[in-house]
Specification:
238 residues, alpha+beta, Alpha-Beta Plaits, 2 domains, 4-stranded mixed sheet, two-stranded antiparallel sheet, 8 helices, 16% strand, globular
């Protein structure tokens, strides 16, 4: 009987430990599965500064890199998921056209998280906004709440997925800043692919980082700054 009790106590201790790891701040289920058990730090705020003066009209390198990295089809149907899309803004007065990539803005106060009934949409401690596919019920409230139209719904079964980027039919998804690359010390695929270096990625909180210094030294804006979401993605040259 004592051996059974000892085994039972050990089982409960192990289970409790596993649960604690699973719900640690900033921790994702797939991180545990892939051996990454280090939680995201609130000392970091990952973000991007996009220089629209260097973002060329007709260039889709960032879109292609995102599709390839995350296993997206790159299709043009309205139902095809797209994590980055190139848009063009035209100044009515001058006729000037500005091309820029639009994706999840990784808000400090994300509306998608506020409306999610299952807490599938959440923000990591380091500011990255993500979707837990295990919790997502496909209600699409988050898609309606996002002012940037940055989220997609997966309508079709998926094949040949990147094991580091789990996706699933019937769930919502969006730009994750290539979190699987960030957690390995790499930069997002879009930033790496941009030949014109229009996308600068880094830690907005680190006073010594290039992005922190540049945000302070050049004029940049947040899209829909009036909503006071404090986005992690900023745009220069607008």
């Amino acid at each position: 009987m004592s051996d059974i009790n000892t085994q039972r106590r050990q089982f409960l201790k192990t289970s409790a430990g596993a649960a604690a790891v699973a719900i640690a701040p900033g921790m994702l289920l797939y991180q545990v599965a892939h051996g990454n058990t280090q939680a995201a730090s609130s000392k970091v705020r990952w973000g991007m500064l996009i220089d629209t003066t260097q973002c060329k009209e007709g260039c889709n390198d960032c879109v292609g890199a995102c599709n390839k990295e995350n296993g997206l089809s790159g299709g043009t149907k309205a139902t095809d998921p797209q994590w980055i899309r190139k848009i063009e803004l035209k100044d009515i007065g001058s006729g000037r056209v500005t091309s820029l990539p639009m994706m999840c803005q990784h808000c400090e106060h994300p509306p998608c998280v506020d409306v999610c009934p299952t807490q599938a949409s959440f923000k990591r401690a380091d500011g990255i906004v993500l979707v837990d596919r295990h919790r997502c019920i496909g209600c699409r409230y988050c898609m309606m709440a996002c002012p940037y139209k940055a989220r997609s719904f997966v309508h079709e079964p998926l094949e040949n997925q990147n094991p580091d980027v789990p996706r699933g039919k019937g769930t919502v998804e969006a730009c994750s800043l290539c979190v699987h690359r960030i957690d390995k010390g790499q930069i997002p695929a879009c930033a790496e692919a941009c030949e014109n270096k229009a996308i600068l990625f880094g830690d907005l909180n680190d006073a010594n980082s290039e992005i922190h210094k540049k945000v302070r030294s050049v004029a940049s804006v947040q899209i829909r700054a009036d909503l006071q979401l404090n986005t992690g993605v900023r745009y220069q040259g607008l």
